[in-house]
Amino acid sequence: MRFTPPLLEARLVRRYKRFLADIEMPGGEIVVAHCANPGSMLGCNMPGSKVYLSPNTNPKAKLAWRWEMIEVDGHLVGINTAHPNRLAEMAIGAGLIPELAGYASIRREVPYGEASRIDLLLEGDGRSPAYVEIKNVSLRVGDEARFPDSVTARGTKHLHELMAVAATGGRAVMLFLVQRGDCAAFRPAWEIDPKYAGALSEAHDAGVEILVRACHLTPDAIALGGALPLYLQAEGADAPAAG
User: Fold this and answer.
1) Half-sphere exposure of 139 (CA within 13 A, CB side)
2) Residue 32 CA: distances (Å) to CA of 6, 39, 52, 58
3) 239/173: higher pLDDT
4) Distance CA 184, CA 175 (A)
5) Please, what's the b/e burial string for 84-98 (b: 16 or more CB within 10 A of its CB; e: otherwise)?
6) Is residue 30 within 8 Å of residue 23, measured between CB atoms?
7) pLDDT: is 95 or 236 the higher one?
8) What is the pLDDT of residues 28-73, one digit of tens each?
9) Quick one: three-class SS letters along 184-200?
């Protein structure tokens, strides 16, 4: 997924009100940028950090800039949670996620469950539809990517709805896209939301497929990387779980 033009380097002054950030531009001007991330952004909101912005081309937008990435410990981290669905759709369409390849059509935001919408619904002749829920991961603890970065009742609800799909014989997939390239594995954040972490382990046991992919980020583009090992138990587990 390319950025045209390439992202603009700036400095973070502060993030506030969840969706707003004060940014110092290269010339010293302070602007307000849209922060498309409802989470806590734990570890990704340090004032003074180098950040990258894209111009907001929507004529109805109130803000001229969108905050896309932040540099943490020398690595770029994608904080825009609107990108993973598009990135996953492009990668699946190009056959870059073998587990999800071979479907004839991809639909976004299809109603299912209890007043929910699945991020991607994959369909093809002679195959069970695949319901794919996608989550953006930006939190790093040690050398592991972790999710969530704050308590997410909505995320837990999504896991239970995927379990309901699996219980009826459908294909249910939880895809975590780690928008950073400095993690060696993935684990649910038991220390932040044990209810979600427990539900993810329960979902795995119930037949929900769990896929984790890293991403490579530059100011020019975000590209899908390789699979990361999955650990479902709290820190100290002996072996990764099967996807």
Assistant:
1) 20
2) 19, 19, 13, 16
3) 173
4) 17
5) bbebbbebbeeebbe
6) yes
7) 95
8) 999 999 999 999 999 999 999 999 999 988 888 899 999 999 999 9
9) CEEEECCCCCHHHHHHH
Residues across the chain? 243
The neighbouring-strand residues paired with 117 are 111
Could you give the CA distance from residue 135 to residue 213 in angstroms, rounded to a whole number? 11
Please report where in the chains the tokens 């699979």 appear, as a residue: 227
Q: Which amino acid is at 176?
A: F
| Residue-level pLDDT at 243 | 54
Is 55 within 8 Å of 62 (Cβ atoms)? no
CB 145 within 8 A of CB 228: yes
Enter the DSSP assignment of 241: B
Count the alpha carbons within 13 Å of 216 in the hemisphere toward its beta carbon.
6
Taking 90 as the threshold, does the pLDDT of residue 98 lie above it?
yes
Mean pLDDT of the chain: 94
Dihedral of CA atoms 2, 92, 232, 193 in degrees, nearest 10, equals 60
pLDDT at residue 10 tops 80: yes
Rounded to whole angstroms, what are the CA distances from 206 to 92, 123, 159, 169, 221? 24, 22, 10, 11, 36
153-167 helix and 194-205 helix, angle to the nearest 10 degrees: 10
Eight-state DSSP code of residue 240: P
H or E stretch at 138? none
Unique residue bearing structure tokens 């002679």: 126
Q: What is the CA radius of gyration of the chain?
A: 18
Say what the pLDDT of residue 240 is.
62
pTM exceeds 0.90: yes
